[in-house]
């Protein structure tokens, strides 16, 4: 696997969609990463869109992307993603991506809120 990609100054703002249940954890800083499967993301500015009755947009910055397989995810990946433990993260991955397998490549997308 290649090394993590680190954000270098970019101008285009991308959009990253989140399930509505993650809004409070992102705003409170309990969720500082997200695991993505077949959802290309680049380091740089991001609008994090939470799908509610009316979408809520939270500006942020993708600071780093770490490629892994599902089997390589760790407890610390789970905690940064706002979960109690790796088992909870794996359950949510299966919820969001029903066909995901331990050998599939994913991206651990690290982000922070924009100032």
What does this structure look like?
Helices cover 20% and strands 36% of the residues. The protein is of the alpha+beta class. Strands 1, 2, 3, 4, 5 and 6 form a six-stranded mixed beta sheet that branches.
Features:
115 residues; alpha+beta; six-stranded mixed beta sheet; 6 strands; globular
Note poorly predicted spans: 6-10
Averaging pLDDT over every residue, what do you get? 90
Estimated helix fraction: 10-25%
Number of strand elements: 6
Instruction: Provide the β-strand percentage band.
Output: 35-45%
Q: What about the largest sheet? A: 6 strands, mixed
Task: Give the overall shape.
Answer: globular
Order of helices and strands: EEHEEEHHE
Count of alpha and pi helical runs: 3
Name the structural class: alpha+beta
Tell me the span between the first and last alpha carbons.
Answer: 32 Å
- Rg, alpha carbons: 13 Å
Give a short overview.
This protein has helices at residues 23-28, 75-80, 86-96, and strands at 5-6, 14-18, 33-36, 44-50, 56-69, 105-113. By secondary structure, the protein is of the alpha+beta class.
């Amino acid at each position: 696997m290649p090394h993590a990609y680190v954000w270098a100054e970019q101008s285009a703002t991308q959009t990253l969609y989140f399930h509505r249940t993650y809004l409070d954890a992102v705003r409170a800083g309990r969720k500082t990463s997200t695991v993505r499967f077949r959802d290309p993301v680049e380091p740089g500015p991001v609008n994090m869109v939470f799908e509610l009755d009316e979408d809520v947009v939270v500006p942020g910055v993708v600071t780093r992307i770490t490629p892994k397989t599902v089997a390589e995810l760790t407890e610390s990946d789970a905690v940064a993603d706002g979960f109690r433990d790796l088992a909870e993260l794996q359950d949510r991955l299966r919820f969001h991506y029903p066909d995901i397998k331990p050998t599939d490549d994913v991206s651990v997308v690290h982000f922070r809120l924009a100032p």
